[in-house]
Design a protein that fits this description.
The chain is mainly α. It contains four helices and two strands. The radius of gyration is 13 Å and the shape is flat.
Amino acid sequence: MARVYLETSFVSACVTKRDDAASVYRRQISADWWKDQRAKHELFVSEEVVAELSHPDFRRRGGVDSWRSAPTGGRGGPRTR
């Protein structure tokens, strides 16, 4: 099983409310990957991603709570739960 690092831009693409063509495309591709591929990989995020996703400006976009179960980084670098 491959390890896959999820960065903030991936989560942002999944929860964006923007409706321009590029944003809609990124949202759909990212959501499709999440639905079809996440179980096939060992996913993890860094503490920096957790901090960015916790920021009030990001949380206002909505949909962030669904990412709470993602494994988090620690000790200065990514790790898995």
